[in-house]
Amino acid sequence: MTSKEIISILPYQYPFLFVDEILSVNENTITGSYRYDEKLPFYEGHFKNNPITPGVILTETMAQIGLVSLGIYMMNVKSSAALDDIKIALTSSAIDFFKPVFPGEQVIVKSEKEYFRLNKLKCKVQMFNEKEELVCRGTISGMMK
User: What mean pLDDT comes out for the span 66-94?
Assistant: First the structure.
């Protein structure tokens, strides 16, 4: 399965699709990137005159790349129609934040599978900025049924 196939199957669209490219993927790890469009609506109010990407959006980006995209690859989902029969739910996340991410900035997400059993995927995730500095890291779990 190619990176473009995985992205085309994701159940998101602009302005809530936070995956530009899958750089590498296998049954244990995935790496992907996303550049935050300066025109995304949440920047207008977060924060006034000093826009910063909200932590919940950083977490969502890590979930879309590091959990949902990896899950699609691992479950060998072949189409968005096939994904319609699969329910996806984030079950937990524990993220530590270290650096802000600004409008227009690109991030790289790296995820490593901790386990995948009984349709539950748990991953260690890390996000890096363009300077290769650690932005945030933690664990994210989700169910795919």
Answer: 85
| Preceding peptide of 98 cis, ω within 30° | no
Supply the pTM of this predicted model.
0.94
Number of C-alpha atoms within 13 angstroms, CB side, residue 49? 0
Domain regions of the chain by residue span: 3-144
Strands (E), 77-132: 88-97, 106-117, 120-128
101-121: pLDDT as tens digits: 999 999 999 999 999 998 899
CATH hierarchy code of domain 3-144: 3.10.129.10
Whether the bond into 15 is cis, omega within 30 of 0: yes
Determine how β-strand 88-97 pairs with β-strand 106-117: unpaired
Catalytic sites, residue numbers: 46
- Give every CB contact of residue 62 below 8 A, 6+ residues apart in sequence: 95, 109, 111, 125, 127, 136, 138, 140
